[in-house]
Design brief:
CATH architecture of the largest domain: Sandwich
Number of helices: 7
CATH topology of the largest domain: Jelly Rolls
Helix content: 25-40%
Structural class: alpha+beta
Radius of gyration: 19 Å
Order of helices and strands: HEEEEEEEEHHHEHHEEH
Number of domains: 2
Length: about 220
Amino acid sequence: MASKRPSAGTPLAFDAQAFLDSAGVPRRVVRLPPGGTVFAQGAQANSVFYLQSGAVKLTVLSSTGKEAVVAILGPGDFFGEGCLASQPRRMSAATAVLPTRVLRIPKPEMVRLLHEHWEFSERFIAHMLTRNIRIEEDLVDQLFNSSEKRLARSLLLLARYGKDDMSHRTLPKLSQETLAEMVGTTRSRINFFMNKFRRLGFIEYNGGIKIHSSLLSVVLND
C-alpha cells in the first residue's frame, strides 16, 4: 500500500536507513576494505546501492587506460541509479576508499519503493539533485583550482564537512596514492601538501587523519 502524503505544513523528517531496515526489501549488506570493488565499469547494472558507512569513489577508465575520479560519495548517498533509467551496463566503477558498508537493493525492489513510498521517493530525488550540484562543483574544482585546493576539498568531503556540527573529524588511514588518484596529481605533491597542512595545524596524523575545520581556509583562500 502506498504511503500518504502529509498535509501542507507537516515537517518532513525521513530517516532513509531506518526506512530501508523496516521496509522488508530483499537486499544484501556488502562490507568492503579500502580498494574493494562495489561494481566494475561495464558490469551489468541491476541494483542500486545505499552507502551506510565509509566512502566510495566513482571512476571512469578511458579506452587509452586513463582513469578519472568523477565523484566521492559518503554515508547516506545512493549510487548505481543508472539502472533505473534502463542503463544496461555500468558507465563507471565504484571502489571503496575507506572501510565501507553498502546496502545493495535490486532494481525491481527499488522501483517499487519509489512508486509506493513518497517519503523515500522525495529523499531519493533530493539526493540526486544534491549530487548533481556536487558533480558540477567537482568539475569546476578540477578545471580551475590548484591541486592543493583540490586535496583540501577532497579531505573535507571525506570528513563530511557541513553534514554535522564539526570542529574536527578523524578519517581511517588513507594512502597518499589513493589521495593522488582522487586529486589528479602525483604522490610527491600529495606528500608535500599533507606535510604543509600538518605544519599549519589543519590536520593531524594519529593512526588516521584528523581533519580540522580550519582546513576550509585553504579552499576559500584566493
